[in-house]
């Protein structure tokens, strides 16, 4: 079976995470190319993963079966327009990990018939524990969907959405989501220190509690609500704490927060050229 040639346009943290995950999964690094104007960054990628590197985007996509657009959203248009001719000639699958840049804009820059997958990974992808939402344009084949999913699965869990507008919800939930949990951990740690625990003890107990709760939720068939009920004894300490959080409006506050993040994602899409 032919091994697909993958080119990353951009060699930053997310590209490095995907490359690292692919190589760790056994993907032949000689079939992976990274293109970036930063020669020092390219040298590091080559040294770490034995991939091919290129400073010329056109040359990098010449024989690519899959092109991953891994540059910042603010510079994506100029980068894509420069390489559009080469992509049009070779017709690879294009995967964009640029947050907020919609399919309509990418089609305008690349051409209407390009096979395109938009994806929204999050920062835990850097430790192969990411969560990525994906959306495919109508002309993406099932084989190409499998190819895109395989690349993103190298850094964690993947989920497809059927409507591109749902990518704004994905951004609000999992794209921005790690920061929400960091804030909760930060608040718990600070409260524990105020109650008299040493800072290191408060930190370790907070982190392990968060990790354990996440693993239980992932490995259990029960919903988070059921798991919460199972650890909440009537009249106990957990019930008291949860009552305070619910009376303080925590569920409604999270709903407002995610709605705000989704709305901002929509606004940024308009600014970045979405239609």
TrEMBL record:
NADP(+) binds at residues 9-14, 70-73. Keywords: Amino-acid biosynthesis, Cytoplasm, NADP, Oxidoreductase, Proline biosynthesis. Transmembrane segments: none annotated. Its main location: cytoplasm. Residues 164-268 form the Pyrroline-5-carboxylate reductase dimerisation domain. One of its GO terms (biological process) is L-proline biosynthetic process. Pathway: Amino-acid biosynthesis; L-proline biosynthesis; L-proline from L-glutamate 5-semialdehyde: step 1/1. GO terms for molecular function: pyrroline-5-carboxylate reductase activity. NADPH binds at residue 57. One of its GO terms (cellular component) is cytoplasm. Its EC number is 1.5.1.2. It is found in: Cytoplasm. Pfam families: F420_oxidored (PF03807), P5CR_dimer (PF14748). Belongs to the pyrroline-5-carboxylate reductase family. Catalyzes the reduction of 1-pyrroline-5-carboxylate (PCA) to L-proline. This is Pyrroline-5-carboxylate reductase. It comes from endosymbiont of Escarpia spicata. The gene is proC.
């Amino acid at each position: 079976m032919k091994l697909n040639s993958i080119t990353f346009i951009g060699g930053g943290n997310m590209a490095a995470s995907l490359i690292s995950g692919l190589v760790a999964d056994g993907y032949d690094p000689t079939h992976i190319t990274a293109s970036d104007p930063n020669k020092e960054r390219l040298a590091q990628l080559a040294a770490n993963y034995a991939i091919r590197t290129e400073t010329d985007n056109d040359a990098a996509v010449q024989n690519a079966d899959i092109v991953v657009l891994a540059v910042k959203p603010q510079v994506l248009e100029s980068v894509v327009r420069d390489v559009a001719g080469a992509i049009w000639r070779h017709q690879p699958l294009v995967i964009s990990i640029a947050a907020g840049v919609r399919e309509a804009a990418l089609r305008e820059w690349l051409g209407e018939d390009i096979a395109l997958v938009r994806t929204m990974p999050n920062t835990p992808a850097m430790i192969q524990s990411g969560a990525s939402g994906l959306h495919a344009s109508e002309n993406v084949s099932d084989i190409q969907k499998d190819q895109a999913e395989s690349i993103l699965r190298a850094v964690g869990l993947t989920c497809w959405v059927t409507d591109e507008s749902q990518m704004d919800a994905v951004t609000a939930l999992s794209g921005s989501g790690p920061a929400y949990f960091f804030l909760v951990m930060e608040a718990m740690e600070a409260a524990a220190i105020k109650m008299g625990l040493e800072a290191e003890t408060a930190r370790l107990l907070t982190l392990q509690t968060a990790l354990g709760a996440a693993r239980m939720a992932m490995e259990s068939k029960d919903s988070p609500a059921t798991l919460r009920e199972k650890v909440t004894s009537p009249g106990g300490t957990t019930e008291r704490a949860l009552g305070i959080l619910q009376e303080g409006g925590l569920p409604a506050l999270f709903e407002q927060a995610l709605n705000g993040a989704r709305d901002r994602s929509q606004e940024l899409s308009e600014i970045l050229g979405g239609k």
